[in-house]
Amino acid sequence: MAKKKSSHLELVLIQLISDVLEKSNNEALNYKQISAKLNITDAASRDTILDVLKEQSKKGVFLEPEKGKFKLKDLKTFLTGKVDMTADGSAFVIPDDEFEKDIFVSARKLHNALHGDKVKVYIYAKKSGRKNEGEVVEIITRAKTDFIGVIRISDRYAFVNIDDRKMLHDIFVPLSDINGATNGQKVQVTITEWPEGAKNPIGRIINILGTQGENNTEMNAILAQYGFPLSFPAEVENEANSIPEQVSDAEIKGRKDFRDTVTFTIDPADAKDFDDAISFKTLENGNYEIGVHIADVSHYVQPNSYLDKEAYSRATSVYLVDRVIPMLPERLSNGVCSLRPNEDKLCFAAVFELNDKADIITEWFGRTVIHSDRRFSYEEAQEVIENKAGDYAAEILKLNELAYILRDKKFKNGAISFESTEVKFHLDENGKPIGVYVKERKDAHKLIEDFMLLANKKVAEFIAKKGKGKEKYTFVYRSHDSPNLENLNTFALFAARFGYKINTKSDKEIAKSLNYLMEDVEGKKEQNVLTQLAIRSMAKAIYTTKKTSHYGLAFDHYTHFTSPIRRYPDVMVHRLLAAYLNNEKSANEEEYEVAASHSSAMEKRAADAERASIKYKQAEYLEENVGNLFAGIISGVTEWGMYVELTANKCEGMIRLRDITDDFYVLDEKNYCIVGQRKHKKYQLGDEVMVKVKKVDLSKRQIDFSLIQQ
């Protein structure tokens, strides 16, 4: 044990010496100069520095260009990167420098680093034909210190068994720090210390989530796992409660008044936060004035207020299977800001004059006041479209007609239509799933989407064209890069197996052939697999201040303007647009880029939490079906198994390779399949298979299938 500790201490000294030499532009220094820069004055420690310099010079870490003077042989002896943990306890460190290869770190050389941590790693001299190997010498930042798990209490101590599969250590909790938790409860634990050489970290319980397996407990556990708070701080609630519901006459006077114009909202049947409304008026010249009115959140949420800081921190509302965790307290999200019918409401609007060909004749952006005449659910609006009758039928039918034209223009211009299946659950009064269905997107959904896209696009264009070069105005855009050609070619090869051709000659051809595929594949067994793979081959959309295009929508400029109740970037967009309409100077780009980057990260985290809640409900639903047979389609392959999505209910589980006993199967990554080594039987992505539900682990949200071989 002592040898291991001294070895690690030596590595830390090598790192400190290397930092000194790197900061001196790798100028050769003697051991006294290095000691001085490290504030080391005692003779024994200086001698240790000299010993390390001489020893590591023999090993090729340092050079001795002249007697007694040393410099680094290679500035890349140390790299920083992120830890990616594997199931066996070893890890790969993915370097910050994307041109560097991943570094393998064995479990005993991680020195308490955990999945996602940013670390500094020492790279060993590479042996011929071997991958890069290294050892963690410093944990720069922890990815997280709070974990969710089940507490096990004995007479003398307690442990928390962590749910997260990437966290391979139980957390030891002294009985003095269990804070009222009882054996078997689901809890949130925070790591307080991890002594060098100790097998397990030490922590204390900070939140008791409840009884394992109960719906509320499990949903709250998912929120806590992804770092979303379960309630609002008192000062945030107090600030929200102090905002008056009534709109003052003085405020109305400074706005364009649309209260006498026909206005309505179209939202999901169970929605409570209505952040967009559409106004419609036929003009004397036969054209149509269409207003996209968005809740004026920035009027109520002022910069640096408690509400603003909390909204920034959360950055988004989170939509779990059975609940919404709003970005803003309910007083605002479902009350003051929500565009409820028969109430005067403050909005920020994009108002367009369109002709019968959906050409934009004029556009106007500014603050409005509205009085919504009707709240439609999507189903009610769809009924009006299909029956051509009902409340505001003339307005809805004309809007639908114009939306079709806008959509057609968008696709002709190179936009891509991804229609992936969205799984929904029928839940009983206890939140238990009693049925699974796939949500349908009809004309009413698309109508709203097309007018929201129009507003987002035109607001972005308005600012982007306002100033160029050094005169450009800081703004928050929604950017989507064109796909990586290598990823797309791999997808094209796979799609070809189903008879679909992807033309990768140009962005427009890619979009055209992907749209043909999406149209062709609709309703077929392979729809979800192909759609998900196509989406994975695309770049991810992000928020940024860079004036870049949106590839998926084929827009030169795009932003998020239409959902400020549930997205913080939209609040920033409203503030910036208001400032520029008032002829104020450009905002600080660096500050907004940091906020945009934070919003992108939180958006991903919210999507992960949503997926986790779906996985939990799928596992809960199939728990009642252990032993039953289902038809499915292979939706993913990995080195340890293949994922299968059940055709009937879209639940996804895994068949582990070790459980397929007729051969020894290995992954063929390039061809998206697993192959038997003796009989050469293939199981390929998209293949239909019969499976039996073998096991369900609710705490890990895992479903295991057995393959029924035919």
Report on the architecture of this protein.
- With about 700 residues, the protein is α+β, with helices and mostly antiparallel strands.
- It folds into six domains: about 1-75, Arc Repressor Mutant, subunit A, CATH 1.10.10; about 75-140, Nucleic acid-binding proteins (OB fold (Dihydrolipoamide Acetyltransferase, E2P)); about 145-210, OB fold (Dihydrolipoamide Acetyltransferase, E2P); about 235-400, no CATH class; about 445-610, no CATH class; about 625-710, Nucleic acid-binding proteins (OB fold (Dihydrolipoamide Acetyltransferase, E2P), Beta Barrel).
- The chain is built from 17 helices and 34 strands.
- A seven-stranded mixed beta sheet has the order 14-21-20-17-16-15-22. Strands 6-5-4-7-8 form a five-stranded antiparallel beta sheet, covered by helices on one side. Strands 11-10-9-12-13 form a five-stranded antiparallel beta sheet.
- A hairpin with a 4-residue loop joins strand 33 and strand 34 (about 700-710).
- The protein is globular.
- The chain starts with a helix and ends with a strand.
- Mean pLDDT is about 90; it is low at about 1-5.
- Keywords: Cytoplasm, Exonuclease, Hydrolase, Nuclease, RNA-binding.
- Pfam families: CSD2, OB_RNB, RNB, S1.
- It catalyses: Exonucleolytic cleavage in the 3'- to 5'-direction to yield nucleoside 5'-phosphates.
